[in-house]
Design a protein that fits this description.
By secondary structure, this protein is mainly alpha-helical. 69% of the residues lie in helices and 3% in strands. A two-stranded antiparallel sheet has the order 1-2.
Length: 143
């Protein structure tokens, strides 16, 4: 059973999946930083300085200067700005993954096309086939 487990772990699919998960986690941190540090300030310019990450609504009532202050006070908050940031993160990650998968599929298709054997056209006339010769013999015997 231990050897079977080792064989399972050593298979390419499991190792590829593990690498994908690790790279995905690191990539998520990069995209999160890109959205909060680069995209949100640009969107803020067009929305009059609006910062999505600090948009919230206190459900139980009360006034708080920031989302962090409301959470520290234990107030029930509806943090729709964080949701907007999550949607932007998702769209960027989904687009980049789409582009990567598209590129990988093109590379695979090119590799499969290169592996297909190329049939060469015969350079000289192969002459009559066995069937043709047998038909000629039959016709000659019938005469």
């Amino acid at each position: 059973m231990l050897q079977e487990f080792k064989d399972f772990i050593a298979k390419g699919n499991v190792m590829d999946m593990a690498v994908g998960i690790i790279i995905g986690a690191a990539f998520t941190a990069i995209v999160k930083s890109m959205v909060s540090d680069l995209i949100n300030p640009i969107v803020g310019i067009f929305t009059g300085g609006l910062d999505f990450s600090n948009l919230f609504f206190v459900i139980g009532g009360g006034e708080f200067a920031s989302l962090d202050a409301a959470r520290e006070a234990g107030a029930a908050v509806f943090a729709y700005g964080a949701f907007i940031n999550a949607v932007i993160n998702f769209l960027i990650i989904a687009f980049v993954v789409f582009m990567l998968v598209r590129y990988v599929n093109k590379v695979k298709a090119a590799a499969e096309k290169a592996e297909e054997p190329v049939e060469e056209a015969p350079t000289e006339d192969p002459g009559p086939s066995e069937k043709d010769i047998l038909i000629e013999i039959r016709d000659a015997l019938q005469k």
